[in-house]
Every structure is written in C-alpha cells, then in structure tokens.
Amino acid sequence: MDRPAIDLPSRLLLNLKPWRNAATWRIAFSGGLDSTVLLHLLAHLAKTESLPALSAIHVHHGLQAVADAWPEHCRSVCAALGVPLQIVRVQVQPGASLERAARDARYHTFAEVTGPGDVLLTAQHRDDQAETLLFRLLRGAGVRGLSGMPRQRSLGKGHLLRPLLDVTRAELEAYASTHGLSWIEDPSNQDRQYSRNYLRHQVLPVLVQRWPQAVATMARSAAHLTEAQGLLEELAEMDLREASSGSEFDWLGLRSLELAPLAQLSDARQRNALSHWLEPLTRLPDTDHWSGWADLRDATGDACPVWRLADGELHRAGGRIWWLSGCWLQPLPAVGAWQDPAAPLAIADNGVLSLTGQIPDGPLHIRYREGGEVMALPGRGHRDLKRLLNESGVPSFVRGRLPLLYKGDQLLAVANLKGLDGSTSGDWHLHWQPLNEDQGLS
Fold it and tell me: Is the whole model's pTM more than 0.90, yes or no?
C-alpha cells in the first residue's frame, strides 16, 4: 500500500540526507505538478531544517505559444516561496524526436549551471520510472537502459539527484491538493503521438487495472536491474584493468587500451568492457552497430581499421585501440616559418612545439608529412621517412600530424621520436605537446 502524503517531508529529508552538506540545492522547476510539489516541500522544510541554499531554474524551450506564459508563473511561485529563480531560454535543435531534442537542450543547460558542490534536484517519481522502463523495453534496451533513471549521477561539475523516485504521482497530487498548490498543465502532455504520453494514458492504466501493483513492481524490477548493472560495471573495470597497460606513445594524451587482453574475452564481456570505457566519451552504439567493433578487432595486422561512433572514432594501431575525437579528426591548416625558434610555437589545432638546447641555424619552418620525405641519418645515409616511422611504430593516425622541422628542403627533425628528434650529438631536440583530450573533444 502506498504511504500517505503526510510522510512526504520526512521521506524527502531521508532521501536527501547524504547531500545535506552540498553547497547548493537547485530545483529543476518546470512549473508542472511534480516540480511544484518538490519546490514547495523544500521551501517549507528550509524554515525548520538547516538545508543548503535553495534556488530554482526554469528552462524555457519556446516550443508552443502557451509556454510563453510559464516563466512568469514560475517567477510568481518562487517569489511567494522566497526561492531565487533563474530562467534560461534555449533553442531546441530539430531532429527525429522533438522529445529527445528538448530533453537534450534542457540537460545541457542543467550541466552548465551545476558547479562543484552543487546538486540539481529533479522531480521524477515512481510512475515516471515505470514509464521509462516500459519505453526502454519496447526499444530493446539492455540492462543499463532497463535499470531506469538513476537516483543520482554526475552532472556538470556537480550531481543530479532524483529524491522522489519512491513517491507515486497520486501522492504528489494529494499533497498539492492538501496545500492548495497551482501548477502548469502542459497541453503537449496529452498528445498521444508522443510515446511517453501514449504509455502514460493508454497503456499503464490498462496494466494497473489488471495488476494494481504494476507500477510498484516495475520500479522494483528497475532496482534489481540497477544492481545487475552495478555488477556488470565491476566486471568491466576488472577487464579494463587487464587492458590498461602503458604505451610508449602515452605522451599523445589519448585514451587507449591494449587489444590482446580484450580479444581473449568472450564477445559479451568485450562489449560490456568497451561500453563501460566508451560511455563517458560518446553515445553508445546500438546492437547492429557493434559489428564495427568486430571488424576493427579482427582486421589483418597490417590494416588500419576505424570504427566510427557518434562522437568520435576508435582506431587500431600498434596492438592497441585508440579513441580520437574533436580536433584529432579535423584537417590540419598549413604551418610555415618558425619566426622565433627560441620561443614555443602554438600550431593551429595541433598543440605546441618547442626547441631545447642549442637552436639550429635558420631559417626554420614546420611542415606535415605529404609522402616521399627523406631524412639524412649519420651512418645510415638517406632514409625514407615512411620506413623510419614504421621502425618507430608510430600509429598511423599520428603520422600526418607529426610536426617536421625543415631548414630549406632539408628535413632536420621529427618531433618526439627518439633518434629523429634532433641533432645526433644531442645538442638540441624538437618537442611536441599535442592537444590534450579535453581540448580535442568536440
């Protein structure tokens, strides 16, 4: 049996207990029933409890004319409760799913405003969790998706928390009625063309009529799957530790894994480990797209396979897989003369160059490899640069980005490669600091 609405304040405080030392509690306030109840609860608890500073944020999507009145409603509610309100207007990018586009715009804003020590509170409840489970089940989600909405997760530089996931919609309605609250009724919530609304109005009522505890049992299933996902993540971390050995090219600042330990795992464990590794980097591929991993893994040794994902690419080189994104995938603008070799040279979209030791006579300039380059090496004569790069094991995706130091038409040095990066006597060396991964991310 559902607990009575009178329990809501104490239950909310219990759910928020681990976060009482946060710098700020910011409520995602749409003006609808759920967030109105959450805001009202917290504003009144703040009168008798020592809570972090409360504020609210309203994201205005501007997708329908009636929504233009909502910021003013939210402003008046927050003013009456003494809670500061921030209103942010966003532009929703068109796409296949308007629901998803609006959600992405909303959560992008939330991430931007959530700083260190901040907690963003959203008002999703137990009925929402059941809808999420059904929706993802019908889309063929795996364990991660079927575990539903997490109670907490990282967001921006802080955290997102859903403290009402054990509360039903009926309890929120009862609380709002008892306290005479008013809220916005979004007309789009009645539009059955949206999948979530169809489930809410057409499917769940039928299920609950036949199985009255359906919402509670689905929420319980989501909790079980959350536990299962936790075990899968522990297994992934174990498997990834085996593949996380260092590389002689760690100076590239790129994330990489040793391929052999991964390839020894079962296909399911490979997908599990890689999903865990890729999850912070890109939207994960769907089931059909995982064939790209098999192609990359099983390619012949002299191939340079690439697996293209939503937000970057996986490359294979030197017995490792490498994650590339952002500037690493963009064409490089031309470089030219190094006017002051005694000072570091910032290269457009490709990091910083510096010379140490006795600076060679100039004029000096920087080029990138185009093919056919030859380098004179004492005792070895003139050597084809391609062969020298092969001998050094330079990953194929790096070769076109390696800065080359020239004096006239003479190739003097290849940055960072031992034996090729300066004078044979060691009087000077050419150092390259590539863009780090944060700078390279799109």
Answer: no
